[in-house]
Amino acid sequence: MHVQEWLDTVPAVAIYALVAGVIGLESLGIPLPGEIVLVSAALLSSQQGDVNPIILGACASAGAVVGDSIGYAIGRKGGRPLLAWLGNKFPRHFGEAHVATAERSFEKWGMWAVFFGRFVALLRIFAGPLAGVLHMPYWKFLIANFLGGVIWAGGTTAVIYYIGVVAEDWLKRFSYYGLAAAVLIGLASMLIVRRKAKKAAAEAQPVPAAE
């Protein structure tokens, strides 16, 4: 079942909790499709009045900030052995090459890597744990984590919500235009067919013999 179809069957409160939970776990360091779930839920909120986009954005932001903070604490306590363990468990996401790429980003950009990492799938998983492993000062991490989480989650929700509203309105109008065009094409086709039939019938009539 598609994510969007499944979300249609879930109560609004459960959707808020689901979005916050999935994004929180992803931010903590577990590779989950947080962005896909958020986009699907935001699109659903544009089509159903039960799901409030403001509450949805707030829940997504809270999940992002809290999840990253827990990931930071785990990374600070676990250190590099934690990264090695994650590499064994999730080699596609925490392989040596991915860890090295993320670490270079942190060394180059510092707290900005946490902020902009929220908008990149790979860094979004790494940001919290790696910031803790590298012992980034928590106040720097918290500022970047909060701003990145709120802007990413709230911004994604707002953009997808308004795109969904505009798209739905456009599709409704398109359906009316499509119906009108289909009727016109049908009428035109019918007239052309009738005209050709009359012409063929006239040509098929026998020519009267000359006296």
TrEMBL record:
<feature type="transmembrane region" description="Helical">
    <location>
        <begin position="141"/>
        <end position="163"/>
    </location>
</feature>
<keyword id="KW-1133">Transmembrane helix</keyword>
<keyword id="KW-0812">Transmembrane</keyword>
<feature type="domain" description="VTT">
    <location>
        <begin position="32"/>
        <end position="160"/>
    </location>
</feature>
<feature type="transmembrane region" description="Helical">
    <location>
        <begin position="54"/>
        <end position="75"/>
    </location>
</feature>
<dbReference type="InterPro" id="IPR032816">
    <property type="entry name" value="VTT_dom"/>
</dbReference>
<keyword id="KW-0472">Membrane</keyword>
<keyword id="KW-1003">Cell membrane</keyword>
<feature type="transmembrane region" description="Helical">
    <location>
        <begin position="12"/>
        <end position="33"/>
    </location>
</feature>
<protein>
    <submittedName>
        <fullName>DedA family protein</fullName>
    </submittedName>
</protein>
<feature type="transmembrane region" description="Helical">
    <location>
        <begin position="175"/>
        <end position="193"/>
    </location>
</feature>
<dbReference type="Pfam" id="PF09335">
    <property type="entry name" value="VTT_dom"/>
</dbReference>
<dbReference type="InterPro" id="IPR051311">
    <property type="entry name" value="DedA_domain"/>
</dbReference>
<comment type="similarity">
    <text>Belongs to the DedA family.</text>
</comment>
<feature type="transmembrane region" description="Helical">
    <location>
        <begin position="109"/>
        <end position="134"/>
    </location>
</feature>
